[in-house]
Amino acid sequence: MRKKLVEIVRNPQFWGFFVSVAVMAVISLAFFYPDNFEGNSLGQADIEQGMANSREGADYEAATGEKALWTNSLFGGMPTFQISPRYPSNDLFTWLTSVYGLGLPSPSDLLFMMMFGFLILLFTMKLRWYYCLLGAIAWGFSSYFVIIIGAGHIWKFITLAYIPPTIAGIVLAYRGKLLAGGILTALFIALQIMSNHVQMSY
How far is the C-alpha of 22 from the C-alpha of 63, rounded, in Å? Predict the structure, then answer.
């Protein structure tokens, strides 16, 4: 057991994974510097629209203490779980999302999450760690991902960030690592469902 543990620690892939995580965290912070440290925030149109759409439900809850399950403020009416899903049962997944983003300030955490998910997939594909790191950085800086951060399509972004590690879990399962693959797949599918952007998962 001890010999196997020593072999794992000495494997360049092992420490390369942690070096990659550190590099991606630094890049994520640097890309949005100095705004992350000055308390500035993006004027994200979709976020502002979402706050307006959920206002009727929030006002109803404040007035009655009951959660509204329907709102007339969007289209011809819509279930509120589609625009403002806030339930105590989501607390664990909200915490996992924060951990997955290393607790970095937003939107650096989003950029990190996108790169980290692809890093997991590339490690699953058994590429050398530095290729995994380069691939993850290239994936994270694909123009569309940066654009939707600015637009405020945050739940779409987060759902997309969870798709590569979901695929990684499926790959592991197909390779016979059923427990690891099943856990990884189930975890990231659950996180996708919690992110509430079914179109992206589809």
Answer: 46
